[in-house]
Design goal:
With 264 residues, the protein is an alpha/beta fold. The protein has one domain: TIM Barrel (Alpha-Beta Barrel), CATH 3.20.20. It contains eleven helices and nine strands. An eight-stranded mixed barrel has the order 1-2-3-4-5-6-7-8, surrounded by four helices. α3 (68-85) packs parallel to α6. It is globular. Mean pLDDT is 85; it is low at 1-13 and 260-264.
Length: 264
C-alpha cells in the first residue's frame, strides 16, 4: 500500500477526482452466511459475476493496475444498489462486500462512493461488513490497519477472508484485529475426518476467543463438516450445503440436515 501523497498513488487519486468508471459490465450473486445458533441469515456475501452469470474469473482476469481502483469502487456501489433492490435490509441480514486493500489509498476519501450509494438507496451503514480480500500481497500492513480502524470508527464490521491461506494469517492479527475471520475452506474440507485440521482450527478458535473475534466457517459442503464446526463452536457457516450463490437473488438457505441442531 502506498502513501496517497506519493507518485504511485496519483492514478488512484486521479480516478477518484474524475469519477472514473469500471468499463467492463458485471453484476453480483449473493451467498448467505447462516447462523446455526440463532437461526436465519447472518449476512449475504456479494460475489462478482458476469452480466450473464459468468464466473468471477471472467471479470477478475480483466482487473489491472490501471482499473483496480475503479473496479473496487464499482463493486461496492453495485453490491449496495442490488442488495437494496432485492430487499436485503428487510431480512435483518448484513451485506458482506469484498474489497481490495491495494485499491484503497485513503480510507475516508475512498468511502465516498460507498456512502453515496447507501444514502441513495437507504441502506443502513451499520449493516455493512467489509471482507479484506488478499488476492495480492499487501506490503504496508500499517496502512491496512488504518483502513480497518477507520472502518470501525464508521460503524462498519471488518473481516479477513480465507484466513489460514495465502497472506491471511496470524501475522495480520498481530497488526490489527478485525471483527470477523473466515476460516479458509481448505481447513474446513473434511475436517470431520481430519484430526490435523481439527487441531489447527481449534488453535485458531482459541485465538479468536481471546481477541473477541467471530469465526465463520466457509466452503462447508457436507453435514459432517457443518456438525464438526458446530461442535467446535463455529455457529456461523457458509457453503453449498446451505445454499449456492444466487444470481442477482437472495437464496433462502436450507436448514442443517438431521433432527438435532444444538450448539455444543
Amino acid at each position: 500500500m502506498t502513501d496517497p501523497r506519493s507518485a504511485e498513488a496519483a492514478p488512484a487519486c486521479g480516478a477518484c477526482r474524475s469519477g472514473e468508471r469500471f468499463a467492463i459490465p458485471f453484476t453480483m450473486a449473493f451467498q448467505p452466511i447462516v447462523d446455526l445458533a440463532g437461526g436465519g441469515v447472518y449476512a449475504y456475501e456479494a460475489l462478482v459475476r458476469g452480466p450473464a452469470g459468468e464466473g468471477a474469473g471472467t471479470i477478475l482476469s480483466q482487473v489491472t493496475d490501471a482499473n483496480r481502483y475503479a473496479f473496487d469502487q464499482a463493486c461496492r456501489r453495485r453490491a449496495i444498489e442490488l442488495a437494496a433492490r432485492l430487499g436485503l435490509p428487510a431480512t435483518g441480514a448484513r451485506l458482506s462486500i469484498n474489497f481490495l486493500p491495494n485499491a484503497v489509498y485513503e480510507p475516508r476519501t475512498c468511502l465516498a462512493v460507498t456512502l453515496a450509494a447507501a444514502r441513495r438507496t437507504g441502506f443502513p451503514l451499520d449493516r455493512l461488513l467489509f471482507e479484506i480480500t488478499e488476492s495480492e500481497e499487501v506490503a504496508d500492513h500499517a496502512h491496512l490497519a488504518s483502513i480497518v480502524d477507520h472502518y470501525k470508527q464508521m460503524g462498519f464490521l471488518t473481516a479477513i477472508d480465507d484466513f489460514g491461506a495465502g497472506y491471511a494469517g496470524l501475522s495480520l492479527l498481530a497488526r490489527f484485529q478485525p471483527d470477523v475471520i473466515k476460516l479458509d475452506m481448505e481447513l474446513v474440507r473434511d475436517i470431520d475426518r481430519s484430526a490435523v485440521r481439527r487441531t489447527i482450527v481449534a488453535s485458531m478458535l482459541s485465538v479468536c476467543r481471546d481477541l473477541a473475534i467471530t469465526p465463520i466457517g466457509e466452503g462447508v459442503e457436507t453435514e459432517g463438516e457443518a456438525r464438526t464446526l458446530l461442535d467446535m463452536g463455529v455457529t456461523l457457516q457458509q457453503g453449498y450445503l446451505f445454499a449456492r450463490p444466487g444470481f442477482e437473488a437472495l437464496p433462502v438457505p436450507a436448514p442443517l440436515p438431521g433432527p438435532e441442531r444444538r450448539v455444543a
